Amino acid sequence: MFLTGYELARPSGLSKVTMGPSGHALNLYAHPAYRPGNVRYCRLFDIYSLGVTLLEIGLWRCVDSDLDVQQSPSRVQDLLVQACKEELGPAMGVNYREAVRCCLEGDFSVPGLSIPTCAEPDWEVMSKEDIMRAEAAEEKINRDLSEAFYWKVISPLAKLYA
Fold this sequence. Notes:
Blueprint: E1 17-18, H1 24-27, E2 39-40, H2 43-59, H3 73-92, H4 94-105, H5 128-158
Antiparallel strand pairs: 1-2
Helix pairs in contact: 2-3, 2-4, 3-4, 4-5
């Protein structure tokens, strides 16, 4: 199985906003910060969704069978991380568990990496130079995140076999 190019399917640029997920079941796969919608895209959102999917694969069950979509987004994340820590190690091994945990918790130790909020700067009043500097910084963070993602998720998973 190959997972590639997730960053190419989203609008780029700091001022771009994406719509949140629709449907209650889809909310379970969305990062807690993304569920309300109207927030700038962040690669961690897709990495989180991948973590939820990997958790389902490892536990051989859908998350919607264990969770109530009416729970708060942060509570859903806490329950998923708890299931990962308590159940996934015995089911799939420590390397798989740690890769999934990193995805669910966003544990990549990248300087400057943060989850965007609805309280973003007003891009329309920023100078072109300030926007260019901010976008260059964002590109570096994304490169560093891609590298950390490779070492903490892709590389360990690539070593596993059934």
